[in-house]
Write a structure and sequence with these properties.
Distance between the termini: 53 Å
Number of strands: 0
Low-confidence stretches: none
Helix content: 55-70%
Number of helices: 7
Mean pLDDT: 86
Radius of gyration: 20 Å
Structural class: mainly alpha
Largest sheet: none
Length: 153
C-alpha cells in the first residue's frame, strides 16, 4: 500500500460532502450490477480515477450480496427479455465456471442488457434519494439552528 499512500491520503477520497458522496454512491449502485465478482475493486478503482468518496462507492456495491444477487440477476434477465422483445427461457443461476461457459451463452444478451438497465435505474434512484435526504437534513439543521438562535436572543 505504500506506493498508493500519497494518492490515498488525499482528502477528496474521504471527505463527506454531498456532491462527492452522492455521486460515489450512485457509481457503486451502478457497478453492483456488473455480473462479475469484482464490484468492490472496480468501485474503489473508479472512485480513485473519478476523485469520488471511496467508502460511499464501495457501500453502494453492497446492494448485491449473497442474499440478493440471485433475485436481482433473474429480474435483470427478465427486464432484458422484455426490452429485447423475446420470451424468457427458464434460467438456473449458479456461480460456477460450467454455468458461465455453457448456460450463459443463450441468455447473455438479455441478461447483460437487463443488468445495464437495472444499474442505471438503481444509480439514478439512489442518487436522487440520497441527495434529497441529505438536502432535507441540511434544511432541518438550518431551521433548528435558526430557531435556537431566535430563542437565545
Amino acid at each position: 500500500m505504500r506506493p498508493f499512500r500519497l494518492l490515498l491520503d488525499h482528502p477528496v477520497y474521504w471527505s463527506l460532502n454531498r456532491r462527492n458522496v452522492t455521486r460515489a454512491f450512485a457509481l457503486g449502485l451502478f457497478l453492483a450490477f456488473v455480473p462479475l465478482p469484482i464490484h468492490i475493486l472496480l468501485a474503489a478503482g473508479l472512485a480513485l480515477a473519478l476523485r469520488l468518496n471511496i467508502p460511499a462507492a464501495v457501500l453502494g456495491t453492497l446492494l448485491t450480496n449473497p442474499l440478493t444477487i440471485v433475485p436481482l440477476y433473474v429480474f435483470a434477465y427478465w427486464i432484458g427479455c422484455i426490452v429485447l422483445g423475446i420470451h424468457p427461457e427458464p434460467m438456473h443461476f449458479e456461480l460456477t465456471w460450467k454455468w458461465l461457459s455453457t448456460d450463459l451463452k443463450p441468455i447473455w444478451k438479455p441478461f447483460l442488457l437487463g443488468c445495464f438497465f437495472m444499474g442505471c435505474l438503481a444509480a439514478t434512484v439512489g442518487y436522487v434519494l440520497l441527495a434529497t435526504f441529505w438536502h432535507f437534513d441540511l434544511v432541518f439543521k438550518y431551521h433548528g439552528r435558526k430557531a435556537k438562535n431566535k430563542v437565545d436572543s
